[in-house]
Design goal:
Length: 81
């Protein structure tokens, strides 16, 4: 699910998040771990919110935009399609 609907591409050096909602879905929320960090992603038709729940701050790419993820400071990225 994470690589499909979640749009997650991850390796040692990068994390890309670009969720894809099926036509009948209004939103998708999921949690996952990346390199010792816990993240929560909530995607709607209008935006994707990414929240670093635990772990050290880091940079990720969300819908092509580079964002800094810091605990307790969710990032909200508009969808551009």
């Amino acid at each position: 699910m994470l690589e499909g609907f979640g749009g997650i591409v991850a390796d040692e050096d990068r994390l890309e998040i670009s969720p894809r909602l099926p036509g009948a879905w209004n939103s998708l929320t999921f949690r996952f771990r990346y390199r010792g960090r816990l993240l929560e992603v909530r995607a709607t038709r209008e935006r994707t919110d990414v929240h670093l729940l635990a772990g050290e701050p880091f940079s990720a790419t969300v819908h092509g935009a580079r964002v800094e993820l810091v605990s307790r400071k969710p990032q909200s990225i508009p969808r551009t399609w």
